[in-house]
């Protein structure tokens, strides 16, 4: 799970900011995989490790291993540009 060739968005089904970020990324044609931390124990543990023990969503994992917590679409774009 730690390094992949695509973006991973860790989220939950009830999280409004998660839904909004995924919708915007889809609209911008930014490919990603969505992982529901409520159904994946490994995912929730990963999210906690990068957020000081808290299961904060959305947490975005980039192919280079970097993460952003509750980012805006602009922050996602900037991270992609910096890595690219």
How is this structure best described in words?
This protein is an alpha+beta fold. Helix content is 39%, strand content 19%. It has a 4-stranded mixed β-sheet with strand order 2-1-3-4, with helices on both faces. Helix 1 (16-27) links the parallel strand 1 (7-11) and strand 2. The chain starts with 6 loop residues before the first strand and ends with a helix.
Please state the overall shape, judged from the principal axes of the Cα atoms.
globular
Look at the helices and sheets and give the structural class.
alpha+beta
The percent of residues in helical segments reads: 25-40%
Uncertain regions: pLDDT < 50 for 5+ in a row? none
Q: What Rg is obtained from the alpha carbons, in whole angstroms?
A: 12 Å
Major sheet: size, sense and barrel closure? 4 strands, mixed
Mean pLDDT across every amino acid position? 93
The number of distinct helices, counting runs of at least 4 residues, comes to: 3
Helix/strand order, N-terminal first: EHEHEEH
Q: Note the beta-strand portion.
A: 15-25%
Task: Write a concise keyword list for the protein shown above.
four-stranded mixed beta sheet, 3 helices, 4 strands, alpha+beta, 84 residues
């Amino acid at each position: 799970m730690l390094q992949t060739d695509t973006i991973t968005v860790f989220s939950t089904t009830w999280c409004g900011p998660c839904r909004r970020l995924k919708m915007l990324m889809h609209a911008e044609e930014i490919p990603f995989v969505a992982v529901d931390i409520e159904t994946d124990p490994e995912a929730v543990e990963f999210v906690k490790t990068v957020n000081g023990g808290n299961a904060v969503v959305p947490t975005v994992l980039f192919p280079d291993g970097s993460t952003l917590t509750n980012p805006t679409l602009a922050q996602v774009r900037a991270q992609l540009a910096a890595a690219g």
